[in-house]
Design brief:
The complex is a heterodimer of chains A (about 240) and B (about 260). Chain A has about 240 residues and is mainly alpha-helical. Helix content of chain A is about 85%, strand content about 0%. With about 260 residues, chain B is of the alpha/beta class. Chain B has two domains: about 130 residues, 3-Layer(aba) Sandwich (D-Maltodextrin-Binding Protein, domain 2), CATH 3.40.190.10; about 100 residues, 3-Layer(aba) Sandwich (D-Maltodextrin-Binding Protein, domain 2). Chain B has ten helices and 13 strands. In chain B, the strands form three sheets. In chain B, strands 7, 8, 9, 10, 11 and 12 form a six-stranded mixed beta sheet that branches. In chain B, strands 4-1-5-13-6 form a five-stranded mixed beta sheet, with helices on both faces. Chain B has a two-stranded antiparallel sheet with strand order 2-3. In chain B, helix 2 crosses helix 9. The longest helix of chain B is centred in the first third of the chain and has 20 residues. Classes of the chains: A mainly alpha (about 240), B alpha/beta (about 260). At the A-B interface, helix 8 and helix 9 of A face helix 1, helix 3, strand 9 and helix 7 of B.
């Protein structure tokens, strides 16, 4: 049994330097995840800012009327449309639309994947942030305004620091999902971790070793990420008492 | 950390036991399960809900000879041999070429068709023959293939072995995606079996197949190593079908030019 295990291990990872392709795949997965994460955060913050500003100031804007109200309504509508489309379609389909239709002329599949996953993640991050902002008690907001802060100042100094703590666990969850979601990048010819394992499987025709190895690597990534976030959370909680 | 490793060991061993246990299982006696990748016209493809193609019809004829009911599982090409090996499917039939590497894992029936690996390019491409591919690759062009097919195996092999190197090949889940990538200039050429190549070229304007073929190879049915009885039965059925002209008739129906 152990001999068999060893020969399988050798066949799947050592022969023809197959482990190198796993390592390269891991690099691609990390690259896509990291860049998509940043893109998603940027998109998410912008959209959450627009949506929550609209939600919070709807009545006062309406009273004032005029140009500002119209602009906010249009922006809010665009954001809603984006959220509906992105959250209403599977990420694989979005990825293939990006690769075969939107960026039909792009040569680098990795960049297209970054774009697709970033755009996808942005929608979820936006709602997470908005939820966080809306969850901060309105009294906090009113207190800020009565101290003489204007709307952006209240947001930056009072609301967002509190909201950030609330959203951190959910945000971490979204990042974990993102890491694993990138495993479909193989659909557009990108050599990510899953695809590297897939190709080993296609060459050696053994399912166990490559699949378990890929699973363990993802698991390890997620464990590392969640422990980092846990540490950050603990640090942020220090000043609570 | 120690606890974590312990848990990991338990998970690993459970997974191994499960995977070993599943080795022995095989499907019902009165059905013949065929694993294929139904995106490979004219050997196998779907028309509405039904499977069609040369392999499908030959498999139906074989099943009839064996007095069994044919069942088709549409899986990824790369999962076929693994599935056959583990007994999940009785046989794999997907325009599959006999290679030494594959022979290590499964047995192959006698050949029932000849396949040609062809090169598809855009009309007016710099790649005029198979020899031009290496020039194209040197200029930064990529080769599109269907993952795990022989075209992939040959093209992604090292240069000493007659390939073009891992980094110059982009692998797609199916042939149609590879051809789509060629249409939008993501790859400079696509290496794929000749018959599906013809279908793809017919369906997309501005593509053509190079006159010189990439390689010529034999198609056969993959059967698990420990399933000698089925191998014998299938070879016998294939033999009879060849003799009475059924196979020729099926191939002619899909590939009239022969």
């Amino acid at each position: 049994m152990f001999d068999d295990f060893y020969s399988q291990f050798k066949l799947n990872f050592i022969d023809e330097n197959r482990w190198v392709s796993l390592l390269k795949g891991l690099g691609t997965t990390l690259e896509i995840t990291f860049l998509a994460l940043i893109l998603g955060l940027v998109i998410g913050i912008v959209i959450a800012a627009i949506r929550s500003t609209y939600d919070k100031n709807q009545s006062s804007l309406k009273k004032k009327g005029g140009f500002g109200y119209v602009v906010m309504r249009i922006l809010n509508f665009i954001c809603n449309l984006y959220l509906t489309i992105i959250r209403g379609t599977p990420v694989v389909v979005q990825l293939m639309i990006a690769y075969f239709i939107i960026f039909a002329n792009a040569k680098d599949g990795t960049l297209v994947a970054v774009f697709a996953f970033g755009l996808n993640s942005g929608a979820y991050v936006a709602e997470i942030f908005r939820g966080g902002i809306m969850s901060v008690d309105n009294g906090q907001f009113e207190a800020g305004r009565s101290l003489g802060f204007n709307y952006p100042q209240t947001m930056i100094h009072i609301i967002i620091p509190q909201a950030f703590k609330t959203v951190l666990p959910t945000l971490c969850n979204e990042f974990i999902v993102l890491i694993k979601e990138t495993s479909v990048a193989g659909y557009v010819g990108v050599m990510d971790l899953t695809k590297a394992g897939d190709i080993i499987r296609g060459r050696t025709f053994s399912a166990f070793m490559p699949l378990i190895a890929v699973a363990l690597i993802y698991l390890l990534l997620v464990i590392i990420l969640s422990s980092l976030v846990k540490r950050l959370e603990r640090r942020l909680r220090k000043n609570e008492r | 950390m120690k606890k974590f490793i312990k848990i990991l060991c338990v998970i690993m061993s459970v997974a191994m036991v499960v995977s070993l246990a599943s080795c022995g299982s095989s499907s019902d006696d009165d059905t013949l399960t065929m694993a294929t990748n139904a995106n490979f016209p004219p050997y196998e493809y779907k028309e509405g809900e039904n499977f069609k193609g040369i392999d499908v019809e030959i498999a139906t004829a074989i099943a009839e000879k064996l007095g069994k009911k044919l069942e088709i599982a549409d899986v990824e090409f790369g999962s076929i041999i693994g599935g056959v090996q583990s007994g999940k499917y009785d046989m794999g039939m997907a325009g599959m070429t006999v290679t030494d590497e594959r022979k290590k894992s499964v047995n192959f029936s006698t050949t029932y068709a000849t396949g040609i690996q062809s090169v598809i390019v855009k009309s007016g491409s710099k790649v005029k023959s198979v020899d031009d591919i290496s020039t194209m690759v040197k200029e930064g062009g990529k080769i599109g293939v269907q993952q795990d097919t022989t075209g992939d195996i040959y093209a992604s092999d090292t240069e000493e072995n007659g390939g073009y190197g891992e980094n110059n090949v982009i692998r797609y889940k199916n042939g149609a995606d590879a051809v789509q990538a060629l249409v939008s200039d993501k790859v400079g050429c696509v290496i794929i079996d000749n018959e599906p190549a013809k279908s793809f070229v017919a369906a997309n304007k501005g593509l053509e197949i190079l006159q010189t073929e990439f390689t010529v190879e034999d198609y056969a049915i993959a059967i698990a190593k420990d399933n000698d009885d089925l191998l014998k039965d299938i070879n016998k059925a294939l033999d009879e079908l060849k003799k009475d002209g059924t196979i020729d008739k099926i191939v002619d129906k899909y590939i009239p030019s022969k």
